[in-house]
Amino acid sequence: MSVAILRQGDYLIASIQVDLSDSQVLELRDELSERIGRVRARGLIIDVAALDVIDSFVARSLGSIAITARLRGAETVITGIEPDVAIAMVQFDLDLAPLRTALDLDEALSLLDRLTQGAGEDEA
Amino acid sequence: MNQEDQSHEDPSPQMPEVDRSLLHELVAYLRDNRTELREEWVARITQAQLLGVMTPEEIFSEVTAVYDNYVDALETGSIETLQAYARDLSERIIPRGVETHEVLGIVLLLRDVLARALFVEYQRDADLLNRILDAYEPAANRIAVTVSVSFVEERERVIREQQEAIRELSTPVLQVRDRLLILPIIGVLDSARARQLTEQLLGAIQANRAKVVVIDITGVATIDLTVANHLVQTVEAARLMGASAIITGLSSKIAQTLVDLGVDLSMMRTVGDLQGGLEEAERLIGHRPTAKGSRPDAAAP
Amino acid sequence: MRHEVRVPISSDADLVPARAEGRALARELGFSQTDATLIATAISEIARNIVVHARSGELVMTGIQQPHRYGLVIVASDAGPGIPEIDTALERGHTSRRSLGLGLPGARRLMDEFEVETDAAKGTTVTMTKWRARDELERLRARRRERA
Question: Does residue B10 register a pLDDT over 70?
């Protein structure tokens, strides 16, 4: 399986296991949107550490997953962006602001706790 | 020597046309009187207190080599060998602290020593003396310029090299406390250095699991558009990794520059000084309402 | 050491091996981890450009050596209908965020040299190069060692 999707309480954790093709990224987007509705998830964590490259298509897709998830009632946090991947991503003229990020899974979980507890303060 | 190092070289390294027979006479005279003239030159160098960092033996040996190369250059009209020697000599004496004025000084002293000797030798025949000096001076000037320029170019190269070495050795990312890093940027920020600092900072964020980084630019005098955009990108890249960046020490001059350049500062969190930046960082790090083990089951209904 | 790698591109699935091959070749040629990532990202963009504009084409990646420096050249070619208004397409942020127009300008910023030839009759060729950043430093380091 190229993406492992686990449920943990109100959250879904999608852990990408291998590099994905564009079609697989779009499938993941649809799959996550559907699962969020089905389990009424309030938070989504996507671990992208296995992606060696996040190009403009993947970056934009992650943004659209986050926007779709919010419309479906869940906040999204991306985790596992490597230093060199981050350096490449900021070269594109993309609006990356919709992407909330955290250094690792623990940080992502505590950020989601904060976001879904209604404190609503946006720091990361 | 690398090709680019030759770039300042004159396309035709030949000396101006002069009376060859006179030059032959001149060269023969300088060779016959090599011992005396060389000693006179060393004496003048010592007297003028030049090359103080070198021992008398070293001075004598270098002076001999320069003298012989000098006479060869006069004879052949080609300055290439002398130029190569001058570069090599510069490379050896620059690390020891020999200054530009010393090199200029010794070259001019040699010119002076030789001119005086020629004057004494030919003073009885004013016409011949004049023609000898006409042959000697342009060649001597050309040689003096070559040696001096070689030294200055070599010195510039050494400075560039040292800048690279400093850049390479500097590891300015400091961990203040758990999860908090400071990157104090001092000196000139160019594109290459900005890029290197970004890589260092992001690597340190990962290694230290940093939550906040304070980038202090108090020590940066000026900034251009490329570097400003790089700074914005660094802040954004840090955020993508999950760390907040705070910029401190933004002088009013740089702030004005950034505004004039139209740099998008909306994503930048800036605080006046380093102290204020650290306080803000503490506040951000302290802002962790739920413990690590807390799970969504505990979340609001 | 391999010096030339060819990757045929005929669907978006081919971007995955193209990125992996590009990264591997960059590492073999001695590029840093960061530069290898930048190169793989740029490859991804120009390969996608082939899929979107021409459906199929080919990537050729070649290690090159010049006095004092090593580089990696990537040529992406297709026989598609060409890219209309290429100059506009290369301008930073000219397109709306949802279009695919961000790829080429992004790839250009990730590489050191970048050229596009496009023609409605002959298709599109993108040639891009990255030079190993460490070469200048190593040359200086070698000179320091020589002297020491």
Answer: no
